[in-house]
Amino acid sequence: MRSTDAFSNYTERLRKFIARHSSPTDGASSDSDFNELALELFARQLENVPPFRELCRAKNISQVTHWKQIPAVPTTAFKEYEMTSLASEERSAVFHSSGTTEQRPSRHFHSADSLAIYEASLLPWFQKNFLGDHEDLLENETVNATEKFGFIILTPPPTLAPNSSLVHMFETVRRELGSRDSFFGGQLDNNGAWTLDIEQVLFGIRKSMCANRPIAIVGTAFSFVHLLDHFEAKNMRYRLAEGSRVLETGGYKGRSRVLPKPELHALITKHLGISTSHIFCEYGMSELSSQAYDAPLAHSRSFKFPAWARVQIISPETGLEVGEGETGLIRIYDLANVRSVMAIQTEDLGIRRGDALELIGRSAVVEPRGCSLMST
Amino acid sequence: MNLPDYFFADLPAGASITPSMIGEACQTLKRNREQYLRHRSTDDIIRALSSLAESWMDPEYPFRLKLLADGPEATGFSKEILRIGIDEFFSAINAKNLRHLIVQDLGHAKRLDGFHANDLEQNTDRASTVRGPELLVHIAAGNIPNSTLTSMLLGLLLRSAQFVKCGTGGSFIPRLFAHSLYEVEPKLAACLEIAEWKGGAHSLESVLFSEADCVTANGSNETLEKIRSHLPAKVRFLGYGHRVSFGYVTHEALSGFDARKIVTHAAHDVIAWNQLGCLSPHVFYVENGGKMTPEEFAGLLATELAHHEQHTPRGKLQTEEAAAIHHRRSFYDIRSANSQDVKKWQSEQSTAWTVVYESDPRFQLSCLNRFIYIKAVANPTEALQGADNVFGQVSTVGIAAPLNRAQLLAEQLSRWGVPRICPIGKMQQPPLTWRHDGRPSLADLVTWSDWEM
């Protein structure tokens, strides 16, 4: 049996699960539904992802009854091992972890099928969280029914960044949800680092303002810093059309000066005229296929994953789940991570807030007290 | 025991120090030095310091009791680790060792008391004396207190006024030591200031640096560069960058009757100050070919560390530190499951201790707090090739070797640039005469006057 066949039945069921939990009438997910799929996926991955199989063998785990018993794989393992059930000829894409300091990036392999699932997971949750008030806008006649959102994407396009899961995500969003004049405003400099085509971005922004049409500006935190630095330097203050919004994600990775979130958001409000209720944050990584968003419209800065991904906050000291309101390492069980491994142990710290998480992130990790020359 | 408000570090949390306060404090320190310290004899100072160290060794000494009672909360080290650390440190501070240090570094026991000549100088009709800096400023290390305490002792020996700047949360032990001095020698303590602020507070530091004659600093290379760039040209700067250490165990040592003892000593090096000092090992290189294999060595070391956790526990970690261990461990779960050449031992339900055995000789930086690597090698050359990524940044190599090999091994290590070689089990206990990063500790601080007769 080809490995793809082993996953096709699961994939079908997952698609139904996603469809069921994406409809406005059915938001809640029962643990047993999730559990059933998780156990099935675990069994497939145990069989078909060799380094994961060895891990489970060493831990003496061959069967589990609850998804929380599935061993989590640390993100660093994606650097050293091919955490995939895809044979080399089946792989059509690979997403790398970002960051300029990393010598060996994480690698998350995909096939056409697994990318399709990635997109099926991405779109409904993105739409619900980022464009959730679209109905209200229609009612208020801020937008008309046939019009799609214009996206200004502050990353380079997929042709220039084929290994970025974030760029793939934005490309999917642009293709499926964006208006025809949506565009990527990022490029690469001579060293391959991401930069902005400021003129092109400004042109797009001005055009939307002239038409009084709301737009979405999406990108990494550092690309917003680059953009806002330009606004600051030229002393520019725009007021984008009502309903305009921003999505920022990711860390800085040494690509710009680092701004605390509230400060970055205050600058966005100051220069683009977008209030904090319309500044959204995303939490995702190349090792995952689902993303979490905060809910500024509901005044919440906690991140929530869709029904097909669950979060646990783990005490690094004991390895057990922490209590409500306590801090620990973020662990994610992502049913859409079909062809790699579903349980991912991140290096990020977060606070447990019900079924959501408040992100502390890696940037808060203190410099070790001991004499240390490098981090890894 | 309540400490009086005497030093800046005694101010309640939240009280802020201003640049003018720093300036005034430096002036006072210099005045007090002139009045109380400059004219004291070396013998007199040695007497005061060795008697103070003796007090610290007394189990009933109130300052020691306070350190052990409040230390775990203030420093994160367990009471047992603090006790071991304090005992090992103060046992080396005695009159004999202090005199040895002066003779070693300055060539004559009375060098600080006026013109004197040793035999060599007499033969060439010369005499010399030295002076310590008027105001010596220390930018203290945050990890363990040893180097700060040593710096303070050296400064007193040189009759310098001293300003000790500690990082946030790092002043507890230096401050207790200063108070213990104040109790018996208030005039000496009047030449000492302890303060705490987050490094890089330029308005405070620029005043401090402009008053200083000499600044010593411990920290990362970036920190040292930053400090150096802010110093006036007249100020002497001694920067101690971060260093790492490792151990080397020969196969002969693992074939003898006391092989088990080496494991015990290695465990001691791992638990001393919870491995957080520059002299603490990240890795033990263990030679193949002995009666005990490197892997067995790792297993026995794990047993020793488990035993230590019962009697000399590590203490509680910050979430971030525990997270580093957790993540590193889960990575080695995968690696050990997928390779015959990797094995891991660890405490259950806690991050108390971890031993990783790998046949790959590449040097690995540990995430510390009792996380130790054992690497199998054929010979020292292979180990040094493996440690190539930390070349020039090594402080100490602890060795276990029979006499006939120890000499060759020491020579090879010295050629590679290792500044300190010592027995395993003593890595975190350098003698007072130790040359920090290969530099003489007293001699680097003084200025000479030579008289050619």
Could you give a quick summary of the protein structure above?
The complex is a heterodimer of chains A (about 375) and B (about 450). By secondary structure, chain A is α/β, with parallel strands linked by helices.
Main sheet strand line-up of chain B: 9-10-11-8-7-12-13
Query: Largest beta sheet of chain B, briefly?
Result: 7 strands, mixed
Spatial extent as radius of gyration of chain A: 21 Å
Overall number of structural domains of chain B: 2
Instruction: State the secondary-structure class of chain B.
Output: alpha/beta
CA distance, first residue to last residue of chain B: 56 Å
Q: Count of helical segments of chain A?
A: 10
Query: In angstroms, what is the radius of gyration of chain B?
Result: 23 Å
Tell me the number of helical segments of chain B per DSSP (H or I, 4 or more residues long).
Answer: 16
Average residue pLDDT of chain B: 96
Query: What is the total domain count of chain A?
Result: 2
**Helix content percent band of chain B:** 40-55%
Write up what this structure looks like:
The complex is a heterodimer of chains A (376) and B (453). Chain A has two domains: 146 residues, Roll (Luciferase, domain 3), CATH 2.30.38; 187 residues, Rossmann fold, CATH 3.40.50. In chain A, helix 2 packs across helix 3. Chain A is built from ten helices and 16 strands. In chain A, the strands form four sheets. Chain A has a seven-stranded mixed beta sheet, with helices on both faces. By secondary structure, chain A is an alpha/beta fold. By secondary structure, chain B is of the alpha/beta class. Chain B has two domains: 235 residues, Aldehyde Dehydrogenase, Chain A, domain 1 (3-Layer(aba) Sandwich), CATH 3.40.605.10; 180 residues, Aldehyde Dehydrogenase, Chain A, domain 2 (3-Layer(aba) Sandwich). In chain B, 44% of the residues lie in helices and 18% in strands. Chain B contains 16 helices and 14 strands. Chain B has a seven-stranded mixed beta sheet with strand order 9-10-11-8-7-12-13, sandwiched between helices. A five-stranded parallel beta sheet of chain B has the order 4-3-2-5-6, with helices on both faces. A two-stranded antiparallel sheet of chain B has the order 1-14. In chain B, helix 1 runs parallel beside helix 10. Chain B is globular, with a radius of gyration of 23 Å. Chain B starts with 18 loop residues before the first helix and ends with a strand.
